[in-house]
Amino acid sequence: MSSSSGWGRNRDESVGEGRGHPSLAARRRKVCPTKQWSRRPSAFAPLRLPGAAHRQRSAALLHICGIFAEFEDKLRESLEMLWPAFNELGDLPIGVYRATLAEVIAHFGHGTAQRLAITARLEHIYELARRTGAVQRFILFGSYVTAAHNPHDVDIFLVMQGGFQPRDAPSEAQGLFRHDTAQSELGASIFWVNAETSFADTEDLIIGWQTRRDLQRRGIVEVVEHDSE
Amino acid sequence: MIQNDVELQASQEYVLRFERILAAARKTYLPEAYEAMASSYLAEIERVNAEILAYLKHVASTEAA
């Protein structure tokens, strides 16, 4: 397991002072498509509409513009809520942040070649886990979900359905559930339980993944299938 | 490596949490599933215990100073 907080074996993971978020910055720019279109008179000039129709069209454009602006505000708010800034230690603030894999990759999957490589592993592992049809929770912790530029690997906690056994999984996915294979072949530290482990113990483990070596807490990420989960 | 007593405490709690999970799981999981499930936790317990032992080998004199 690797972690910028010191649990990990790799002690030289560099933690930046906060990676930039160009995509979010780009989204922050207020853009109203209808306003842009209205700056191009040639697109509308041939339409010589009578006064009432012209006013109707203007009202419709204003309405559409309002919808775009409202949508953009909501999108920005949801992105900011989903991914708060890293704290001074390079960690997410305390909490379990639920996000789709696409959202996780958009936020954590870029910056350095190491991050790109680990992200490719994560995508592969997620697909293998999905093929088991038995994953209840897929949680990411450790240095991948911090501001570390070069996380050593990806740390994953899987909660599987009750009675799940690795032999029930498709053969290509069985390596997920054996420590040595997961490390050597998939480049990941994977911990798992099935629902035979009590809810309280599972929650205790999830709290444990949020606890740094200095006993401070940090945020971790749960990958969900859909935004609504 | 463990640098101070706070990290020592965190490491001990970390190991204890895994031991507690395994102690319960060995009674409820099917043998084959338990063996696979336990492999990650046991490896982690082994690694962190080695760090705890390494820390405890030395007296606290430099820490107090």
Overview of this structure, please?
The complex is a heterodimer of chains A (229) and B (65). Chain A is α/β, with parallel strands linked by helices and 229 residues long. Chain A contains 8 helices and 5 strands. Chain A is elongated, with a radius of gyration of 23 Å. Chain A starts with 21 loop residues before the first helix and ends in a 6-residue tail after the last strand. Residues 2-6 and 8-46 of chain A have low confidence and may be disordered. Chain B has 3 helices and no strands. In chain B, helix 1 packs antiparallel against helix 2 (31-56). The two termini of chain B are 19 Å apart. Chain A binds chain B through residues 1, 6-7, 9, 164-167, 177-180, 182, 189-194, 196-198, 201, 204-205, 208, 211-215, and chain B through 2-3, 6-7, 9-11, 13-14, 17, 20-21, 24-25, 28-30, 32-33, 36-37, 39-44, 47-48.
Helix content of chain A: 40-55%
Number of distinct helices of chain B: 3
Radius of gyration of chain A: 23 Å
- Give a short account of the largest sheet of chain B: none
Q: Compute the gyration radius of chain B: what is it?
A: 15 Å
Distance between the termini of chain B: 19 Å
- Compute the average pLDDT of chain B: 92
Give, in spatial order, the strands making up the sheet with the most strands of chain A.
1-5-2-3-4
Oligomerization: heterodimer
The SSE string of chain A, one letter per element, is: HHHHEHHEEHEHE
How many β-strand runs of chain B? 0
List the helices and strands of chain B in order.
HHH
Q: What portion of the residues of chain B fall into strands of 2 or more residues?
A: under 5%
Interface with most residues: A-B, 31 and 29 residues
Which segments of chain B are poorly predicted (pLDDT under 50) over 5 or more consecutive residues? none
**Poorly predicted sequence stretches spanning 5 or more consecutive residues of chain A:** 2-6, 8-46
Please state the overall shape of chain A, judged from the principal axes of the Cα atoms. elongated
**Intertermini distance of chain A:** 28 Å
Mean pLDDT of chain A: 79
Let me know the number of strands of chain A: 5
Name the beta content range of chain A: 5-15%
